[in-house]
Design a protein that fits this description.
Number of strands: 2
Distance between the termini: 55 Å
Order of helices and strands: HHHHEEH
Shape: globular
Number of helices: 5
Largest sheet: 2 strands, antiparallel
């Protein structure tokens, strides 16, 4: 009995590092995909909840309207996720900030679905690869991923403020099931 226990302990000690390493093979890419999924859920929920007649709302003339941000996010998702994933974004018909809410929300959903496909094969193996970026610059894939995470958070925070200024709670401020 003791010999079997010793063999089991030795086997666990030999196999466990391999199992842990396999689970952690792409911690950065996995963390980015997890962040993407959470951001997509919150951004889509905010766009769905914001009233259609307020998509032109902006707190000051210098700011983007809610609809402007939908269009910006949609374009950004195609560009950034395509760049990060190394795939060409689909050609889409143009949407404008003053298009109807259903068309804008559908476009936002489409672009997040594209991100889902583009980011699926992402690994940590090529985080240092230089990617073309705005203005003819090149940035590492890791830098573009970090920038993208910040962009999603920035625009969600804008929407959270717009929602609160209109007497609404943003999705992340609501209790689960509310």
């Amino acid at each position: 009995m003791q010999i079997r226990i010793n063999y089991a302990v030795v086997a666990a000690l030999v196999l466990l590092p391999g199992v842990v390493a396999a689970q952690q093979a792409n911690p950065v890419a996995d963390a980015f995909r997890d962040n993407y999924k959470e951001q997509a859920k919150n951004l889509i929920a905010a766009a769905e909840e914001f009233p259609a007649d307020k998509f032109g709302y902006k707190p000051t003339p210098a700011q983007m309207s809610f609809g402007d941000i939908v269009v910006h996010l949609s374009q950004g998702n195609d560009y950034l996720c395509g760049s990060i994933g190394g795939v060409k974004a689909p050609t889409r018909t143009k949407v404008d900030h003053d298009d109807a809410k259903p068309a804008l929300v559908a476009r936002l959903r489409e672009t997040f679905a594209f991100c889902d496909q583009a980011l699926a094969p992402l690994t940590d193996a090529n985080l240092s690869e230089q990617l073309p970026f705005f203005g003819g610059r090149k940035l590492s894939r890791a830098a573009v991923m970090t920038l993208t995470t910040g962009d999603w958070a920035d625009h969600y925070s804008q929407w959270a403020i717009y929602m609160r200024l209109n007497g609404m709670l943003p999705p992340t401020a609501k209790k689960p099931g509310a």
